[in-house]
Design goal:
With 125 residues, the protein is α+β, with helices and mostly antiparallel strands. It contains two helices and five strands, in the order ββααβββ. The strands form two sheets. A three-stranded antiparallel sheet has the order 3-4-5, covered by helices on one side. It has a two-stranded antiparallel sheet with strand order 1-2.
């Protein structure tokens, strides 16, 4: 087991039947994914958590929608993951009935910049 282990998302057992764990890098990616794909109101104990990307998937593609999506995502990430990452840039595009969001960030405590891409196909997932 790594020196610092975090529960994997989604929660699942590992090969030994214990709670699966991941390292810090993967944990940060999984937290970003949770913020992106959780709709506000979906979590009863934290109803304002998330950013509601699913609601935008079927909106007509436009520059205004892309700009609004980028602002919404960046704001949600800054709000919920401020202690974990410094968000540098967010891009969102609609391609072939899928919403593709790229987040460029630096994990707190490092100077390393990372880019993660998340894709949500039509119908959500």
């Amino acid at each position: 087991m790594p020196a610092t282990a975090y529960l994997s998302y989604p929660f699942q057992p590992d090969a030994r039947g214990r709670a699966a764990t991941v390292g810090r890098e993967r944990h940060i990616r999984e937290m970003i994914e949770q913020v992106l794909f959780t709709a506000p109101g979906e979590r009863p104990m934290r109803p304002d958590f998330g950013c509601g990307l699913r609601e935008l998937l079927f909106q007509p593609a436009s520059d205004a929608l892309a700009a609004a999506t980028q602002q919404m995502v960046q704001g949600a990430l800054m709000r919920w993951l401020e202690d974990w990452v410094s968000v540098q840039r967010v891009t969102a595009v609609v391609e072939d009935s899928s919403l593709i969001v790229t987040v460029v960030y630096a994990p707190r405590g490092t100077a390393e910049t990372r880019a993660e891409t998340f894709t949500m196909p039509a119908g959500g997932s």
